[in-house]
Amino acid sequence: MNLAQMQREFQSWLVTASDDAAQRLAGGHVAGLSVYQNNYRVQLVDCLRVSYPHVQTWLGEDAFLAAAITHIDNSPPHAWTLDAYGDDFGETLALLYPDNPEVHELAWIELALSRAFVAPDAGPLTLEALSDIDWESARLHLAPSFTAHVVTTNAADIWSALQQGIAPPESEMLAKPAAVVVWRRQFTVVLEAVDAVEHAALLQLWENGSFDALCSMLVARLGESEGVAKAGALLAGWVGKELLAGVAA
Amino acid sequence: MSTPSSRFAGHGLGLRREHYRDFLETDVPVDFVEVISENFMVEGGQPRHILRQVRERHPVALHGVSMSIGSADGLKADYLRRLKSLADEIQPLFVSDHLSWSRIDHFNSHDLLPLPYTEEALGIVCRNIEMAQDTLGRTMLFENPSSYLAFGDAAMTEWEFLRAMSKRTGCELLLDVNNVFVSATNHGFDAHAYLRGIPAERVRQIHLAGHSQGTELLIDTHDSPVHGGVWSLYAEAIALTGPVATMIERDGNIPPLADLLKELAVARSIGEANARMRQVAA
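Output (structure tokens, whole complex):
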């Protein structure tokens, strides 16, 4: 057996605990192989626990462990860093809990926050930087840590309660889907619910950065005077919340 | 061939999250700190910010766990790019990883898996080391792993493998004395022969850590104080290597910093005793 064949056999042992692989690797002496098998699975479970502490609290220890085992069995790790192992855990939760959308929405929130935590540094944009710019050609850059998601449940409220260490509310469907955004202010990650207009405005800005296009979208949606006023108010709010990282004329 | 690392004979600790505040707000009496490279190979945010602050106070060694130097299908360019970016910024004392493999094809176990000590594996490991050192523009250190499985087709011992690897590539060694103790116990080889067999002049750093007794084997858990037998082996090791950077690794059941500093003081005293013996002998 050459090195590549041995390493594929070892992968097979770790992922499936195949007796055939154990026989070929160690002649059936599994004591040493079992140490590696145990290390592999324990490390992945621990990674999911660290990545999704509030999902674990919400589901309870036994259900979380069962979900983690399902994920490990179905999604062997492949990313360059262990920290990224849980990136698609939300998809496993969605399959396991199709009637409990708050579970995978809670997972989305935890993943977005952890990604924002190590997103590239940038900004923030100051009000002073906005003076004397050509608004027709100005392109605003959102913080690199920014991301947005549409939720159908009160997952954001559940996350907030768990984060504060207080009893979370019962899960419930929202009257209509809503949006949450995540970004980082300096070294603090932020989760915030936004209304439909602000969500659409942020997505518009995320796509092409044009403030002129943003104004046009808001005017089309709200009318001339209200649309222009809304654009100004949103811009001031985003600067204050450090959602913007820069501007290019 | 890359420029060899400079000799550095201080005593240090692994920087762990539980002790960030101590290292940022107090004058911790260590000569260097070691960090897990992958924890800081991120694009931005607080981890890199903390590391920059610590670097202003202490020399830093970068210790990786995911290079997978023994992968039959080679190294990942993106991983090396991230590591180079970090090393270029931090200007570390050492950049190290393990003599092991973690990844094959699209699978990454994130564990330090054992290599068969064959001529084929030696060729692959050396090719990968040369790629890593060329990309990083610096000599790397590789650590002997704890292992729980020995391969029947091995053509050489681990220390013979390390010697040949170091000779071919110019790489240097991170000698984990606890790993020697664990592997020697698990596989029944002579730890003293191991220490005499490695090229002592290539050792630039030493790790000390605790281990646990598993059902049948010793396990390298890093969750307890350094074992008495490991201290004895450490004294023997530095008699062979001379003074080199030495540190305590602790990754589980992490105690207050003061407890680790007491353990580090033991390493210092053994080092001082060894230095006195060298002076007398000279």
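Chain B has one domain: 11-281.
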